[in-house]
Amino acid sequence: MQNNSNTYEPAEDTFFLEDYIKNQKGQCALEIGTGSGYLTKILEKNFDFVVGTDIDFSAISRQTAKIQNGICCTGADALTKQFDFIVCNLPYLPSEEIEDRTVDGGKEGLEIPVQIIKSAKYRLKSGGKMLYLTSTLANYKKLLEQTELLGFDVKILAKKKLFFEELLVVQADLLV
Ligand SMILES: C[S@@+](CC[C@H](N)C(=O)[O-])C[C@H]1O[C@@H](n2cnc3c(N)ncnc32)[C@H](O)[C@@H]1O
């Protein structure tokens, strides 16, 4: 869902992903694509240090849930810190162009997700874990393959059927 400020308001996918991050604990966590800040705020309860990034500056500056550390950048590209845990509610809709960055994932719903996962890989500690949300509307099988090729052990943690799609929470453990 989108409002006038181009911030993605927490929706069904956000709340589904919340169920799988609320019990995660550790030192440092990162949310890529923080949007309203809803999920980053949840991470702040259980991690000592939390960062939320977003490609859209207006989303960060107008957050309803004010997060402690918001950074405007692509993926995790502006960061040098290593994290134990990274989460991303991916923009996964297949699209020819990226017109709405809150939801458009590019061709097959893969281009932006792969870019984000690549960027996350270099910010994960060895043995670190990433959770991301995608959908059957995207070529999710190819996304899982690409994630494996990037050096992750990948499994589908949970599925949720909606009207026209199934949401998937994917766990990707960095192997090196
Ligand atoms: C589906 S929304 C999720 C928002 C929020 N995390 C939630 O779960 O409600 C995807 C978010 O990712 C951001 N985004 C899109 N492409 C990005 C990229 N390459 N790097 C960082 N953030 C990106 C969008 O601006 C948007 O806020």
Q: How would you describe this structure to a colleague?
A:
This protein has 176 residues and is of the alpha/beta class. The protein has one domain: 3-Layer(aba) Sandwich (Rossmann fold). Helix content is 26%, strand content 35%. The strands form 2 sheets. The protein has a 7-stranded mixed beta sheet, sandwiched between helices. The protein has a two-stranded parallel sheet with strand order 5-6. α2 links the parallel β1 and β2 (47-54). The structure holds S-adenosylmethionine. S-adenosylmethionine (SAM) binds next to α2, β2 and α4.
CATH architecture: 3-Layer(aba) Sandwich
> Which structural class fits the helix and strand makeup?
alpha/beta
What kind of sheet is the major sheet?
Answer: 7 strands, mixed
Q: What topology, given as strand order, has the largest sheet?
A: 3-2-1-4-7-9-8
Count of DSSP E strands?
9
Give the helix proportion (percent range).
Answer: 25-40%
Task: Output the radius of gyration.
Answer: 15 Å
Query: Could you report the average pLDDT, rounded to the nearest whole number?
Result: 95
Q: Superfamily at the CATH H level? A: Vaccinia Virus protein VP39
Are there runs of 5+ residues with pLDDT below 50, and where? none
Hetero compounds? S-adenosylmethionine
CATH topology: Rossmann fold
H/E element order: HEHEHEEEEHEHEE
Report strand %.
25-35%
- SS summary, helix count: 5
Which CATH first-tier class would you pick? Alpha Beta
Give the end-to-end Cα distance, rounded to a whole number of Å. 37 Å
* Large-scale geometry: globular
* Total domain modules: 1
